[in-house]
Each structure stands twice: as C-alpha cells, then as structure tokens.
Amino acid sequence: MTASRLSPAHSPGHGIDRDDAFTFTLDGVEVHGFDGDTVASASIADDRIACGPSLYLARARGILTAGVEEPNALLHVSSQQSGQPAESMLPATTIHACDGLEARWLQGLGRLDPAGDGAVYDHRHVHTDVLVVGAGPSGLAAAREAAKTGARVLLMDEQPLPGGSLLSSRPGSEDGEIDEQDSVSWASATIDRLDGYEEFTYLPRTTAIGSYDSNYVIAVERRTAHLPAAERERLAASGVSRQRVWHVRAQRVVLATGSHERPIVFANNDRPGIMLAGAVRTYLNRYAVAAGSRVVVATTNDAAYALVEDLIDSELQVAAVVDSRREASPRAAAVLARTGVRGIFGSAVVDTASASDSVLFDTAAETDGRVSAVTVSALDADGRPAGEHEELYTDLLAVSGGYSPVLHLHTNRQGRVRWDAHLAAFVPEAPVQHQAVVGSANGATSLAASLREGAEAGHLAARELGYTAPLVVPAGPDATPDAAVRPLWVVPARGASLEAAAADEWRTHFVDLQRDQTVADVLRATGAGMRSPEHIKRYTSISTANDQGKTSGVNAMGVIAAVLNSQDPDAVGTTKNRPPYTPVPFVALAGRRRGELFDPARVTNIQPWHVAHGALFEDVGQWKRPWYYPQDGEDMDAAVLRECAAVRDSVGFQDTSTLGKIEIRGADSPEFLNRIYTNGFAKLKVGQGRYGLMCTPDGMLFDDGVTMRFAEDHYFMTTTTGGAAKVLDWLEEWHQTEWPELDVCFTSVTEQYNVVAVAGPQSRAVIARIAPEIDVANDAFPFMAYRETALVNGVPARIARVSFSGELAFEVYVDNFYGLSTWELIAEAGAEYGITPYGTETMHVLRAEKGLVIIGQDTDGTVTPHDAGMEWAVSKLKDFVGKRSFARDDNLRANRKHLVGVVPVDRRTRLDEGAQLIASGTPVTPEDGPVPMIGHVTSSYLSAALGHPFGLALIENGRGRAGEIVQSPKDGRLIDVQITPQILFDPEGSRRDG
C-alpha cells in the first residue's frame, strides 16, 4: 500500500473522531472511515486515490484537491433517506462520509434522479451589521473584533469546522500557533467565545455563492447531510429543511475567502497520485491520511515547504523537492537543512510515468494508472528544460504552482483586480464600497499578516457603524517573508518553444482537467486568431465545467500569455467570475416554492363568503376569483344568465379586490402619467377619475384601467388583475431608464384595499343605504367621480362611480381588514332588491355586450387603440409612449383588423373563442390549398339581455364590413356569422346614469 491512515503519534487528525468509525460503499467496495471524513479522505486512507476516468479522453484520473476546487473526483451518491434524491456531480472532497453511504465514481457526467426530490428546502432573509465570509484565521479575527463591539455579526464558512487553512496545520508548524495556543484550538475557542455574544451568528457548512449590489449576499447552508441517518429522518419528518438559502443584506462585508492552490502544466500532469501540495498537507494533518509513502514535491513558491516539514515529522519519505526558482529562498534553505531533504533548484518536473503506461485505460484493469516516476530537468532563463533529465521514483507528486486568491465575491461586485508579480497572482486592486478583502484572498502570505488584516477590517467595519471597542490583533508566529514565486505556466517536455513545437506535443499538457483541455487546445484557439481570454474560454471550454476553473483559470491565462509571448497573465486579462461560486441544486433555489406552493393562490378577505355561498373559482393572475355562483340544478350557462339578468334588471355585486392598484406620488406625477397614458391626466381634477390606455412603443395596447387623482401630486391607478405586476414594472422601467429626472415614485397597494363593485339600476339605492353621508344623485355624484366617506358601520371608505358593465355602478374601496364586513354590509343593504353576487364570467358577458375590451383576451399584442375602437382615448395634442408608431404605414392600413361584434345568423349557435373567420363562400377543401382567414373570435357568450349568443372578433377592415355575413367552423360545419357594431347593448349609453 502507498496511502494509509496514520496513528495519532504521526498526525494530529484534528478533523476526525477516531472513536466513531463506520463503513460505506464506493463503487460497490466497502470503505472504512471516521466521523469528519470526506469520501475523498476515507478513500485515500483505503489506498484508493484513483477516481472516475476523464470525461472526453477516458484517461485515468485521481483525487487532486481537498476542497470545492476538485475537478476530477466526482460522485453519484444514492438517496440516503426517504424523499431525498440521488445526486450526481458531487465533489468527493466535499461530501461528508457517513455510515451506510452508497456512492460511485462518475466519468464527469451525471444524471438527474427521475424520481424527483421530496426533501424540504427553505429560504431565510436577514439583515446584519457585519457579514464575514470565511472562518479562517483572518475571518475569525474580523468576526471577533466586530462582534465584541455589540454589532450584529454574521460569520459563514463552507467548512464544518472553523479554522480554514489552520485545519491543515499541526502544532509546532509555522502556522500552528496563535496567541500561545495551537491554532486549531484557538479557532475553536474563538467560536466558543463569539457564541456568547447575543448578536453573533455562526453558519458552518454555508457557502456564499454570489454577491450583489448594496452588499446583498446569497449563501447556501447544508443543514442535515452530515447527521446520522436516524437524526436526518427525524428532522425531515418534523419539517426541518435539508438545505437553506440565506439572503443576507449587510451594511459591511469582510471577505476572508482564502486562496486556491494551482497545479503546474507539464506533460502527463493528470495522473492519479498527482495532487496539490496543500491538499496533501490537509489529508495528512486534518484527516491523518498519508496520500503516498515516497513523495516528490514540485513547487514554484515557499508554501510547499510546510508540507515537507510535516511529511518528515510524520516519518514519511520525501524523495526530493523540485523548485523552479534558481536558488533556495531563506525559508526553503532552512527547511531543507532541518529535514535533510534534497532540493533540486532551477528545475521542474517535465513528465511523469506510470506502471500502466503500456496499457490502455480500462476501469476493470488491475492498475489504477498511478504515477510511479517523474522526469526532472533543469530550466534555462526562459523556463525551458535544459541539460540532462533525471528520473525520480515516487508514488505521490505534490505540486504547487502558486496560489490564486478566491475573488469571486469581490468581482461579482465589479471589484477590480491587478496582477501581483511577486505572488504570481491576481489580487484585489481596491475594495468595493463597504467591503474589505483580507488574508490570503488579499495576497497575505503569512499567518500574522492574515490575522492583522482580519482584525483591523472587523474593527473598522464596526466602528464605521458606530460600534467601538479596543482593537486587539491576535498574535501569530514570526515568519520569514515568502520569496517571490517563479511561475511555470507551461513546461515543454522536450525543451522546444511553443512557437516551434507541433500541437501534438502538447496534448498531454492538461490545463483544465475536468474538460480534458490541453495546451494544444489553447494553441488551436490562438491559431484561429483568438486573443481574448473570454473567446478562448468558450472556444476551448476551459473553465466552463462545474468547478468553474478554480484550478485552471489562472493557469489558462498564463498559457495564453506564454503562447502570445506576453510576460505574464496581466497582459491577457481575466475571465469573469459569475455566480454561483459552487453548483447549487435548483430545488434549493426554489425552496418551498414547489408543488402547490410553486404558484401560490392569492385570495381576498371575502373568500370565506364566496366559499360558503358555493362559488366556483377561476385562476386570474394567481388570484382565486369567483367564476360564478351556481344554485341547485344550475350549470354555468344558467347561473351566468341569472347573474347577468340580476345586474341588468336590479342590482348585483362583485369582489373586484384583485384589480391591480398602484399609488403614484411626486411633483411630476401628472407629467409622468401624461407620457404613459394615451390620453391626458395632467389636467384631471382632484376628486375625479379617468379611464386610460397604455401602449407599448410600437403603438400596441399594453394595459388599461381607471386612475383617480387624490391630490395635485397623488394619483391612484388601477390595472387589470393579471397585469398588476407588469404595469408596476413598466412604470419603474420608464422612470428609471428614460425619465429619471422626474419626481415620481410608485407603490403597489393591490393587497391594501378590498373593493366591491355594485352594479345595476338599484345600485344607487344600495350605496345610499351603506353611505348615507353621500349625495348619490346623478348631478351630485357624476360618472368617474369619487367620494371619501364613512359607511354606516363606521368603516372609512372611498366610493367611485365606475362602470365596467354599462350599468349604473359604483366601486367601494375599504382597507383590507374591513373587506368581509363591507361585503356583508352591502349584501344586507341590497337584500330588498334581490342583490345577487356575480363572478368573472358574468362580468365578461356584461362588458362584452357593451363592447368593452379585456386586454389580453380581445387584444394579442398587435392591436392599437384605433383597432379596438378606442381612438376617443388617444390624445392628438400631447406625446406619449407609442404615439409615433401610429404614423407607421402598417398602422394606417385600411385592412387592419378591427374589433367588432359578431352574431350567429341562426341566433342559436355559440361560437368558439379563437375560432377563425373566413369570407362567405371561401373553399375549405384540402385541394384548394391554404384557407385565407380574415379574423378570429376573441370573446363569445350567451346573453340574457340580447336573448341570443354573440361575440367580439378581430376582423380585417371589420368596421367597414358591418352587416356582412362571414363564416366560422363549428363541429365540422360552417356557421354563418353576421358582423355587427362593437356595442350590441345600449349603444346610446343611457343606462350608465340610471
């Protein structure tokens, strides 16, 4: 065996509990683990470093990292409890190993569980003074200094334990002590101390996936996956979510997100047994796992020497350290002198070998393709191999190509970065407003510097918010400053230059392991003329897998720079980091908005009355609206005819609370509405309302409604039920993007008011009874006026004379709380007149008889106000959205479709909505070819007032064809249909005033 679990005498193993052992299965083979293990650490401890083959080339691959940046070791994990799905594409380095877990390696391609996901997921929205992302040394220092001031502090970290990079250290090492105690204990004690502050919250296993304007950060917490099976089942049964999405709004943010180590690009750099040096150290110290027994360390920097010390302290063999730098740095020289390890400087690993090199990869083969030897060569001044090659035998190659600060959240906010030649990395150029980047994310290379930056950032964030306490910086060990990095962006196997070498020579120099992309692919992209890293990224697919290029992104920039003969990646630039930082299940983003909660039903306060009186409902813009109220033995037609007759002959009432309602305030409200509506609103008198139309820029109808003027700078707009949200968005869009100079603001108040429409010849009598303080006479209370009053039960109300039925009608507005009592008051007041509740179907019949339009039913995005017969609502004196389009040739065509009435000639057949209309006598047989259509039916109903069916239709030159007989298909035959004027009932409008 080459990999093994170490004893406590050889490794602290502070991330695992050796007293809690279990087994799980990986690819059907039993694996032993301890509580705290990941699938990756337990697998390596069982000497299984190889994982699934690569996606496109089926090359043998192994575990490369110890964290979220893992590109190779992807798992399919079977369902662990009832209702929970099987999941794929999960990095083995992040999956908590537990008893009974069943997993298998993937070849870079997963499959969604067809059974679906029945687990619970939820969202939580919080505000905090200071948000600290990352519980490493700098993050803990920041949280400590901010929380002790009394500020509300939220600390989140993707790891289950606090400490970050400290979890990879061991007592006595350069980063193994803080404030005179070992660093892991210091991290744990710091969290214990912070938990004593009332305003402090710690969220382990929580990954910040995106950062947005105004310090709005979204994070995903994994809440139950690490628990024993019985506990998971118990929590799931009690409704505890499996994962939670946090929406955090912070006044100040401290980003302590750390850094990711980079591989080195050389020939055959993808074999199992080639791991990042930092990952080898993590497995060694945190999980007590030796990933190999004879180790070669290849590095470009000082960081790898901490691993060398720890390997020797664990009594493991280090064959050599291959360092690209020409001479040993002070840190390197000191470590090599203490350990006696051989250092090979000014050199690099240029190729690797495996015992299975002569065998094509086969998952059933006995060998796992593990590295068995490395080829080392000296480098010339240009970084090319020179001189004799040396072969070193090894079972583990630990590589460190430098560290890339994790700046995803910083760049999400358009934070700028700069190239630091000393570190060979992109670092923040300047912080985003009200944010700070600290620790290794900011380029700090020592523990002391990270602690200092974190403490100062936390202290400053709290102080800027008015919280104060003395600043105390945790004491880290004195360390030799890190020497400059000598990056190796690409190491030729034979010493040839990139310009002279054939592309085939670069097909094993892997840049992106998950995408199987090599230097040859970059050469192909640049050979095609591409220079932008964004273009090359998409041409090659580098950094587009679910690891998002965490180990390949900067290397790709370095390779591009080398190919283009640039000095460093700074000349090439970077690609964009886009949320989410790590993959997130769609079901977690959905939260509880699934199933019946996916599109939750909205109901008014009057809903209990509707249900008690037998209403049937239809869904309109998420609202449950009463459709009709059937009585015993009635079908829909009978119920609607009865409701229509009641409104026409006496009085009916309807719950219209669902209509959109928007308050518009500001000194420029009149001007804004004048521009939005086709008709004028600037001169509308206070106390009056007006029906208005909105058009899109192409002159087509967008929405309509009545808007009342409450004060010189205060309007109250109503919209269609289904259009409430889109109209509010429409208003905001025009204000924010086109007319930001206007003093106007908008507030949705749809749910603040309940509204009851009272319509019919006796509606005036009903209103007089419920609002005796109002003079309801026609002259005193004219059409489109409104009055503020108190109802007889003392409820404040606003009553408007508005009609969508053509009848004398009123609308009663009350605060939401009084909706049901007001409805019952109206029902009692109208009982003498046989007041009848009516639903949306009756409303449609009544308005269609009067030729009134429903936007979205009688219009389809191609209808102008003139087409709909509402040119009377279009001003000729002012400009408005869409006005110029009325002059387009297409909008002036004589044969445009007009909204007109249609009546079946037989006065018995109800036409189908959506049915096509054709000119009378048009052949409809297949041999006659396509049938020319002249229009279609938009609305069709039975009418109690007319005594026969009727409809509305959009017909070419419809108003010019009044009286013409056309035809429509119905049940396999053609029905004769007469075109009529748009208004079929009470065309004079005499009933509106009672």
From TrEMBL:
Keywords carried by this UniProt record: Cytoplasm, NAD, Nucleotide-binding, Oxidoreductase
EC supergroup of this enzyme: oxidoreductase
EC id: 1.5.3.24
Highest taxon of the lineage: Bacteria
Biased amino acid composition, Low complexity: 162-171
Domain GCVT N-terminal: 608-876
Region Disordered, residue ranges: 162-182
Pfam families, A to Z: FAD_oxidored (PF12831), Fer2_4 (PF13510), GCV_T (PF01571), GCV_T_C (PF08669), SO_alpha_A3 (PF17806)
Catalysis performed (reactions): sarcosine + (6S)-5,6,7,8-tetrahydrofolate + O2 = (6R)-5,10-methylene-5,6,7,8-tetrahydrofolate + glycine + H2O2
Domain SoxA A3: 508-591
Record domain Aminomethyltransferase C-terminal: where: 898-986
GO biological process: tetrahydrofolate metabolic process
Subcellular location as annotated: Cytoplasm
Main localization (coarse): cytoplasm
GO cellular component: cytoplasm
Cofactor note (record): Binds 1 NAD(+) per subunit.
Cofactor(s) named in the record: NAD(+)
Family designation: Belongs to the GcvT family.
Protein name (record): Sarcosine oxidase subunit alpha
Source organism: Leucobacter tardus
